[in-house]
């Protein structure tokens, strides 16, 4: 499947479930204090470096974009699903949301203070992820920060692993391997949080949050 085919498949799948998704995940940060704390730290770092615009990639219905805005950031959302973008605009009329591809962002070079990628790369096939990371690096200003979240593989011997996601095929990454790809694209890891699954969680694998900056 080509990169364009993957984008279309992801767009169509999320278009189909957008209203249900928006309802089900409208408060995903409510019971995640560690994630809220890291988002606050991310916001503080962006503000300290000049408070440039922040792109929430794969923003879905826009609730996390709104959270970033509440933290004082000039945040806007980008998603491949036009239906998701429509729901985000409806729920947050004062914020900016656009339809777009993470691998071809309509953003000028070196203009963003931050990028959030919250589980937005999980449907990106491993061979296509470098193009996405290259785009993120391109649009970040020097000193800009990236916060990227993704599910981890079962161990360092597995660089990537596919898994059965509710919507369409998704991928897990070795944290060290993904951090290495970030370095390859001029992004230096500054912090890492690994969250263990709870005993009742349906998916029994770790969640990883990497914070990196562009030198």
UniProtKB/TrEMBL annotation:
Name of this protein: Class I SAM-dependent methyltransferase
Alphabetical list of InterPro entries matching this protein: Methyltransf_25, SAM-dependent_MTases_sf
Alphabetical list of PANTHER family matching this protein: TRANS-ACONITATE 2-METHYLTRANSFERASE-RELATED
Domain Methyltransferase: 54-144
Pfam families (UniProt xref): Methyltransf_25
The keyword Transport is annotated on this UniProt entry: no
Highest rank taxon of the organism: Bacteria
Species this protein is from: Streptomyces morookaense
Keyword terms: Methyltransferase, Transferase
UniProt GO MF annotations: methyltransferase activity
């Amino acid at each position: 499947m080509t990169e364009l085919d993957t984008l279309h498949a992801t767009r169509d799948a999320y278009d189909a479930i957008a209203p249900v998704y928006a309802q089900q995940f409208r408060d995903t940060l409510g019971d995640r204090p560690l994630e809220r704390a890291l988002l606050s730290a991310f916001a503080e770092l962006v503000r300290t470096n000049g408070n440039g615009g922040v792109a929430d990639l794969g923003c879905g219905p826009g609730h996390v974009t709104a959270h970033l805005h509440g933290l004082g950031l000039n945040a806007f959302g980008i998603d491949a699903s036009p239906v998701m973008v429509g729901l985000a605009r409806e729920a947050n009329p004062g914020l900016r949301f656009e339809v777009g591809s993470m691998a071809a962002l309509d953003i000028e070079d070196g203009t963003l203070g931050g990028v959030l990628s919250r589980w937005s790369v999980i449907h990106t096939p491993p061979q296509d992820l470098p193009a996405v990371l290259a785009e993120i690096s391109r649009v970040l200003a020097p000193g800009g920060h990236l916060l990227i979240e993704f599910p981890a593989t079962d161990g360092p011997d597995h660089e990537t692993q596919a898994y059965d996601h509710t919507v369409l095929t998704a991928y897990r990454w070795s944290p060290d391997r993904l951090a290495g790809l970030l370095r390859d694209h001029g992004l230096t890891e500054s912090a890492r949080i690994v969250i263990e699954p709870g005993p009742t969680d349906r998916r029994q694998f770790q969640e990883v949050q990497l914070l990196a900056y562009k030198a």
